[in-house]
Amino acid sequence: MARGNTRQRIQDVALELFAEQGYEKTSLREISERLEVTKAALYYHFKTKEEILISLFRDLTRPIDELIAWAGEQPRTLETKQEILRRYHVALTGAAPLFRFMQENQATVRDLSIGETFKERMVTLTRLIQEPDFAMADRVRCISALFTMHAGMFFMQHVEGDPEEKRDAVLEVAVDLVTRAHQGPARG
After folding, report:
1. Of residues 168 and 111, more confidently modeled
2. 90: closest CA among 29, 167, 18, 143?
3. How many Cα atoms within 13 Å fall on the side-chain side of residue 100?
4. Phi-psi domain of 5 (left: phi exceeds 0; alpha: psi -120 through 50; beta: other)
5. What are the pLDDT digits (tens) for 89-118?
6. 26: alpha, beta or left? (left if phi > 0; alpha if psi -120 to 50)
7. Is 86:172 a contact under the CB 8 Å cutoff?
8. Which residues of 103-126 are buried (b: 16+ CB within 10 A; e: fewer)?
9. How far, in Å, CA of 14 to CA of 155, rounded?
10. Is a pLDDT exceeding 60 seen at residue 3?
11. pLDDT given for residue 117 in this prediction
12. Is the pLDDT of residue 4 over 60?
């Protein structure tokens, strides 16, 4: 469902067009035509495609930044780490169109500043769900939990089944990986 204000409508339409024909092949003119507004009206909000993309990235990743801030204030317990995964799952679901864009436009993302900040977020999240004294296999489990959630967004769409059931299964596997890591031999 399209969001209300003009700025959000521009972001939504731009992301649709980026997904349909690729970031590089989409022009501001095409975005303004799809919106049925003048290019001047579009320029009032955004001067470039890059500005639109960066604004989209900021808006859709704000919940992830809020999650990182919240997690940094919590005790480093298994329950906290499970809750981090649950909240990350919700944030990922909300930002699904942007993550699809990132997957399909990796070169563009790499060239823009958003690629670096996304990598930093992932490194921070992996630190928040594991402990420095974990055995290597348990550290891999924790990192794999996050990437299970990412892979679930992209690859589970090709698996038969109810979308909600698939999302729940992805979260269950991610939580299970972190839980298992916390039950490793050093902490048994």
Report:
1. 168
2. 167
3. 17
4. beta
5. 998 888 877 777 777 777 777 777 666 777
6. beta
7. no
8. eebeebbeebebbeebeebeeebb
9. 24
10. no
11. 77
12. no
Q: Could you tell me how many residues make up the chain?
A: 188
Higher pLDDT, 88 or 101: 88
3-state class (DSSP) for residue 48: coil
CA separation for the pair 31, 28 (Å, rounded) = 5
Q: Using CA of residue 69, residue 75, residue 76, residue 81, what is the dihedral sign?
A: negative
pLDDT: is 75 or 53 the higher one? Answer: 75
At which residue do the structure tokens 């809750």 appear?
Answer: 83
pLDDT digits over 9-57, tens only? 999 999 989 888 888 899 999 999 999 998 898 999 999 998 998 888 8
Among residues 182, 177, 181, which one has the least CA distance to residue 146? 177
Q: C-alpha distances in angstroms, 63 versus 11, 70, 91?
A: 17, 10, 6
| Residue listed under structure tokens 């109810």 | 162
Q: How far apart are CA 148 and CA 3, in angstroms?
A: 29
> How far, in Å, CA of 183 to CA of 149, rounded?
21
Residue with tokens 């038969």: 160
Q: Which residue has tokens 């639109």?
A: 52
Which residue type occupies 19?
A
